[in-house]
C-alpha cells in the first residue's frame, strides 16, 4: 500500500511526445503478475490514447485484463513496463480526484444515501477544506445530483433500504459528485436486470452530456458499449492488448429506440465479429 | 401468547426453571449442604454475609472493569496495527497466538513477584486474558474491507489515515462491540482467578476463604454473584453495541 507521493510538478512538465488532445496515453504497457511459480501476462504491448471529454468503452472476452487496465489508468496498479500518462504527467501513484464505480455498489452501510454521495467532498481538495464551513452548499449540490439520478426521495434512507438499481444510482452519483476529470466505470450495471440497466444507460448519458467528463467504461455488454460510447476498444484475450477501435458516430442523445435500428445493430454486429475472432484466435 | 412476548419471557423462565430443578434435586436427594447447597442455602448465606459479599464484589467489579478498560484500549490499538499492516500482522501473529495459549493462571505467580498480591495482579490478569479477542476482531474488521471500496477512496486521493477513518474504523465497530461481550466475561475469569490465587480481597478471595471454612453455601453465593455481574456487564455491552452499530443488524430483530 506504500505508494510514492504524487508530485504536483509532474503535472507541469508537458510530455513532448504527446499531442495536446491526449488526456490519457498508454504506451507499450506490459503487466505481469507472478502467481506462485508461473508468470501471468495480463497485458502486453498495450497502447491507447483517449482525448479529453470522450466516452470510451472497453470490451473483450472475460479474463482479458480489462479490470487490470482500469487499475492501471487510475494509477492504482503500476505497469511492469511502459508508461501511463494522465494529462501529460506520468502516473506514479493513484491519480487523485478520479471517480470510480464498480459492479458492486459498495456504499457505506453506516451512512445515509446523501452522506454516501457526499463522501468525495470529505476527501478531494479543495472541497475537503471548504466542506465544514459550506456544508449547506455542498449538501444542496449532492441533493441536486440525487434528483438527477432519481433518488431525491431516498436521500435520507440507509443503503440497505434501496433496491439494487437505486444503490447503483447512488454509486454513480458518488463517483461523479465532485466533478472528476476522469470517470472509471467497471461494469457498473452488470448485476442489474435488463430494464433497470437500460434506464441507467440514459441516466449515465445525461450526466455525461451535462458535465463533459472523460469516461472509461469497462463492460461485457456490447449494446451498452455502443449506446454510451464515442469509441469502443476491443481487447484481445490474455495477454490483453487493443486489437480493434470502433468509432460510434450515432447522434446524441441516443435513445432506446435507436438500439433497434440498423446503424446501431451494425455497430453491435461488427463488435461481436471482432470479439469472436479474438476468442477463436485464443 | 405472542411469539414476541414469549421471546422476552424465555430467558427468565429458563433461569428460574434451572434454579427450581437444582433446588428440587437437593431437597429430594437429601445431599449434604457442604457437598452441594441448594440455591436457597446459597441465598441464605448471601443474606447472612451480605456486607462482606458486597465489599468483595465491588472490589472484583473494580479490578475487572479496570482490566477490561485497559484491554479495550490496548486491544483496539493492536487490532488496528495488525489489521492495517500485513508486516505487523505477519510479525506479531505467532507471538500473540503463543501468548494467548498460556493459561493465565500460570502468570499470576509471576505477577505477584513483580507487583505483590492484591489489586494490581488482578487487574493485569483481567487485562491479559481479554485483550486478545478484541485485537483479533478489530483486525478482522479491517482486513475484510471490500477492495473496491479502498480503490474508490484511493482514487479520490485519500491517504491511508483517511481510509482508516472513513471506512476502516466504522467497518471495525460491529466487530469491536461483538468482541466486547466476550472480553468482559473473560475479564471476570481473569480477575477472579487472580484473586483466588493471590489476594486479600475480591470475590475469588472470599470464596477461597469460605471453602477453607467449609462454608460451601457462601462459596456458591460468591459464584452466583460472579455470574450475575457477568450477565449484567454483558447486557450493558449488548446495549452499547445496539446503540453504536445498529446499522450492522439491518432489518433483523436480533436487537429488540
Structural features, described:
Chain A is α/β, with parallel strands linked by helices and 282 residues long. Chain A is built from 9 helices and 10 strands. Chain A has a domain at 104-179. Chain A has helices at 9-12, 66-73, 113-117, 127-130, 135-148, 164-176, 194-211, 222-228, 262-281; strands at 22-35, 38-51, 55-59, 81-86, 89-90, 99-102, 182-186, 214-218, 231-235, 242-247. In chain A, the strands form 2 sheets. In chain A, strands 6-7-8-3-9-10 form a 6-stranded mixed beta sheet, sandwiched between helices. In chain A, strands 2-1-4-5 form a 4-stranded antiparallel beta sheet. Chain A is globular and about 55 Å long. Chain B has one domain (37-242): MetI-like (MetI-like fold). The model of chain B is unreliable at 252-256 (pLDDT under 50). Chain B has helices at 3-29, 39-48, 50-84, 86-101, 108-115, 119-143, 147-156, 160-197, 203-212, 216-244. Chain B is an all-alpha fold and 256 residues long. In chain B, helix 3 packs antiparallel against helix 4. Classes of the chains: A alpha/beta (282), B mainly alpha (256). The interface between A and B is medium-sized, with 31 and 22 residues.
Give me the side-by-side strand order of the main sheet of chain A.
Answer: 6-7-8-3-9-10
Low-confidence stretches of chain B: 252-256
- Summed up, the domain count of chain B is 1
Strand content of chain A: 15-25%
Classify the secondary structure makeup of chain A into a structural class.
Answer: alpha/beta
Strand count of chain A: 10
Give me a quick take on this structure.
Chain A has 282 residues and is of the alpha/beta class.
